[in-house]
Amino acid sequence: MSVFQKTGPLSVLHAFIDASRWRASLEKDAPARTDMISLYVLETGGCEGCAMEVESLCGSAFALERYGFTRVTDPADADWLLVTGAMSRACVQMLDRVWQAMPPGKSLVAVGACAVDGGLFGAGYATLGGLKALTQVRKTIPGCPPSPQDILLGLQRLAGG
Q: What is the spatial distance between Cα 49 and Cα 143, in angstroms, rounded to a whole number?
């Protein structure tokens, strides 16, 4: 007989003890990376749906570090800038300050439809739309909002080439 009860009231406890049981299945799809890419996340406006999905990557369900990515709180330590949300006029200077603080070799990644082209929040009195209105965007992760799995797969795709 198993030490852990897998059904009934103790099943939730068992799930927390055995994290691999509920971890995203991406672990089988890609080998672990040895070189870490530091990510700085900036929410620039909108509904914050994409920002919440990016935040969920930092939990134990996705093991972001296993795939070669780590979150940083200082843009001076970041390799990639992940921007979520439509570009609000109030955040333009903040985006510029963060970008200037990042070291050479940096990359800009637009996460979600709003960050790419404004999504539901087109250009108006409070927003400029997406990053395409301000700069050339080469790295994007589409969706409204993209799921944590889609974001992680997109980051892996972008890191691969």
A: 10
